[in-house]
Design goal:
By secondary structure, the chain is mostly helical. Helices cover about 50% and strands about 0% of the residues. It has a domain of about 70 residues: 434 Repressor (Amino-terminal Domain), CATH 1.10.260.40. It is globular, with a radius of gyration of 16 Å.
Length: about 120
């Protein structure tokens, strides 16, 4: 039991992350460390940017199919994205909070433009 407690953070008084929260954190960290925007990840995975954002915030209980789609698009094995120790094992910078902004992969209509 001690081994599980140290992995989950309980030995440090920090509540353990749920598997959904671990997945959310790891998707965001891999994406941000790769310099990929949510829009780019969403486009590559064939989902909406808002979907990616809600996954990264741990708000969605997604199917295994979406886990696989996101993992393939981000270039990480799905099982690694569920590993609580992945950031340390991959040497990811956990202080990064966002990827650099880039041009959108699709045209955007201007709001309020004349018709």
């Amino acid at each position: 039991m001690h081994h599980l407690q140290s992995i989950s953070g309980m030995s440090r008084g920090v509540p353990p992350l749920s598997l959904r929260e671990v997945f959310a954190r790891n998707v965001r960290l891999v994406r941000v460390n790769a310099g990929v925007s949510q829009e780019r990840l969403a486009n590559d995975a064939g989902v909406d940017r808002a979907f990616v954002g809600s996954v990264e915030r741990g708000l969605r209980n997604i199917s295994i199919d979406y886990v696989e789609m996101l993992a393939q698009a981000i270039g990480a094995p799905a099982h690694e994205l569920m590993n609580p120790d992945m950031p340390q094992q991959r040497g990811l910078d956990v202080t990064l909070t966002r990827a650099p902004r880039t041009a959108r992969p699709y045209p955007v209509k201007k709001r309020g433009a004349s018709r």
